[in-house]
Design a protein that fits this description.
InterPro entries: Cro/C1-type_HTH, Lambda_DNA-bd_dom_sf. With about 90 residues, the protein is mainly alpha-helical. It has 5 helices and 2 strands.
Amino acid sequence: MQTTTLYKELRLKEEISVDKVATELNISVEDYVAIENGQLKINYKQAGILGDLYNIDPTLLVQTSGSINYNLGTYSRTIYADKYFEGEEKER
């Protein structure tokens, strides 16, 4: 199964080459391919450039989820929190 990242989907939809996007971001083609493969993350400046290139809100490219998903069978749950710590409960 092959997954496609949002970056790749946007680039293919706009029919823009990897070379063009890498040039716009002022990075190597290899680094951009690593971004598309999910191996590297973009920074805010790069998100702004991609937002302009694809005519979208750049914050959509750098948002983080407000939830944590644990898929562990019986103990599956979704936690909605900005800060979350899970540890052993201690008696007081």
